[in-house]
Amino acid sequence: MKRKELIQAVSLLLVLFFVLVNVNYVNGVSNDPALNSIFNGQEPTIKLVNDKISSLVSYSSKKFKDIKAGDWYTNNLSKLVGLNGIDGYNDGTFKPKNPIKTAEFIKLMLAAAGYRQELDKDVWYKNYITKAKELGIVEDSDGYVFDESMIRKDMAKMICKMLKLEPQAAGSLVFSDASGIDTKWIDTAFNEYLIRGYYSKKARTFKPLQTATRAEVTEMIVRALEYRDNPEEYRVKMKAYYKEIEREQDLTDGTYVMPPLTQAQRSRLNSYPENQKVETNVMSGQYMSNKEVVKHFTQAYLMDLIRKAKGYIEADNNVDYHVVDLTYKNEAKKYLSTGFKYIDKNGKKVSQDDELDKVVKW
Question: Which of 180, 201, 208, 320 has the greatest CB tally within 10 Å of its CB?
Fold first, then answer.
């Protein structure tokens, strides 16, 4: 085979490889019987794939042999599988940690958003780039090299431009590793909860110049589609989600700070009968002195324990400890025999409820 013929053959194989992503769908409906049955023949939308997520996760976990249902990206990968038939490799893998090329990202983003294009026979992604320019996602001045890996700051920029978001630079540096670069697009994505970066010990990083992986891309594209479907609902949902995620990280890092109680909360807590009188004998009446406790457990351990305890109580939507006590008591009952009787220090039988009440009060 001559060199020219060999190049043409390889080019044809590459085009066929990328066509695999599109052949599974006709007019948005899958030709795969298993996938089609999940949607009952309906054209998939972001709302529909969210409703069918359990079935899609099960389907995708079988489709790709290198992902598990519990992997952090599997839900969003499964949604993309449902939306536009994103495919893996011929060996049945998805390779989530592999980098993704800029052209591949653009193609996947547009296809998922409903802008499928015919693959060009010479440069497979040519029509997708043309469409991206038409939509204002890509401009000649961007200087992208489509055959090279997608970097994270450019990914954030394209997502924002697809959603028609106006760039808005933050008043201060959001990500500690983003100094020295134009941050207006990643700031915009951050403000809209499309990205949050990496969070640890009260500091945020984004790794803006790092190559985006296939797993990260699935997450970003699904977020963009959910945002486009209902921006206000998306922001409310993601704000609550990240508040909890970051609170848990603060607890892990030991940097959690209990928010101050409001006057209403203070008044409510002070009204409880047990707060009207300081008791000296709640359980056995035998206590370590503060000095002995610190010596035995160490001050650092106790401070960490207090910090986490406050965090866990506050996490229950700021409920007061009476509600927390009841929850604890009901949960504890699940692990105890109903008819079990306890013996107090005077030899008297105590019911399970009474014993639990005593433990809760302590």
Answer: 208
